[in-house]
Amino acid sequence: MPTTTPDSTTHHATPDENPDFYRDCLAVLSRKNADFVIGGAYALRHYTGISRKTKDLDIFVRPRDCAETLKILAQAGYRTEVVNAGWLAKAWGGSSFLDIIFRSGNGMVEVDDIWFKRATHMDLFGLRALPVSPPEEVIWSKAFTMERERFDLADIAHMIQAQGQSLDWRHLIDRFGVNWRVLLSYIVLFGFIFPVERDRVPSFVMDELMHRLKDEGTRPDGPGNVCKGTLLSGSQYLVDTLYRGYQDARFTEVKTMTADQLIDWKHALDRELDQRLEDVGLVPPETPDHAPTQTRLNGLKSKIPSTPAIGR
Predict the structure, then answer these.
(1) Mean pLDDT in the chain?
(2) Is the pLDDT of residue 311 over 60?
(3) Do residue 164 and residue 191 come from a single domain?
(4) pLDDT 10s digits, 47-58
């Protein structure tokens, strides 16, 4: 059977990168004892040995630590900005940038203390033993990315291929919670992609998830006419939430934000909706049963809650 051994050697920058900028950001944060873990392409390389060119570096921080992280980087002379108050900030060094992520774009995956307790370590840009997102959290955070222009299936398949026999599968199942079907879909596709390596997934994992599937049958897993597709793609299910009467699951299931964070996130989504409609070319027919785009868009925005179902 083929084997995959991650390349644990020190990473060497590719031409698209700005190693001095990244090195300085990571060194400054480390000197200030700021909590962060490295994710994205560098975490993927750490766990799978797959290296690719990138113009950015992803770090993950707790939501409560984002402001302090930006303050430290601003004091070091870098331009910083909060791109989306619900999940993303950036620090800039010329044309290169550091993504500072504290939650997934759909609001479902939030960085918490577990990311730091379970972190592994890697050498990067000449710096020693930098913390890296745990492999289970790498998979969890990537699993909800199924856009037309980006689908992280290959990354997750390679993570299972390289790390499947050492993953804490019970922890991973618990991370997905009520969204276990998403995890099951990746496991099924992994078995299709690498049929001779299906044993990378312990039998109890498939047994448990398939038992859940059989037990659930055709019963919905929650009340209401909800479309969960928006948890996977912000664009491709707008036709369902705008014109077909489905509720957007982002606004019914996200329980991780405070009232102020939800309001900021709502405003960011408001600004994003028009662009997403244009990107997918979603133009409704002008009939009595299909209101003009702006009317339906305003209707969707009015459904976004201004306060959370639960707060922190």
Answers:
(1) 84
(2) no
(3) yes
(4) 999 998 887 899
Number of independent structural domains in the chain: 3
* Collapsed DSSP state (helix, strand, coil) of residue 81: strand
309 in a structural domain: no
Would you say residue 294 has pLDDT above 90? no
Instruction: Based on DSSP, count helices (H) and strands (E) in the chain, helices before strands.
Output: 13, 9
pLDDT digit string, tens, across residues 56-77: 899 999 999 999 999 999 999 9
Question: Could you list the residue range(s) of the whole structural domain that residue 55 is in?
Answer: 19-133
274: Cβ contacts below 8 Å, ≥ 6 apart: 297
Same domain, residue pair 199 and 158: yes
* Shared-domain flag, residues 282 and 233: yes
Q: Are residues 189 and 245 in the same domain?
A: no
Q: What is the DSSP letter of 15?
A: T
Residue 117: is it exposed, middle or buried by C-beta count within 10 angstroms (0-12/13-18/19+)? exposed
How long, in residues, is the chain? 312
pLDDT tens sequence across 77-94: 999 999 988 899 999 988
Residue 129, C-beta contacts closer than 8 angstroms, at least 6 positions apart: 121, 122, 123
How far is it, in rounded angstroms, from Cα 167 to Cα 218? 31
Q: Which residue has the higher pLDDT, 311 or 154?
A: 154
For residue 64, count other CB atoms closer than 10 A to its CB: 11
Burial class of 219 by CB neighbour count within 10 A (0 to 12, 13 to 18, 19+): exposed
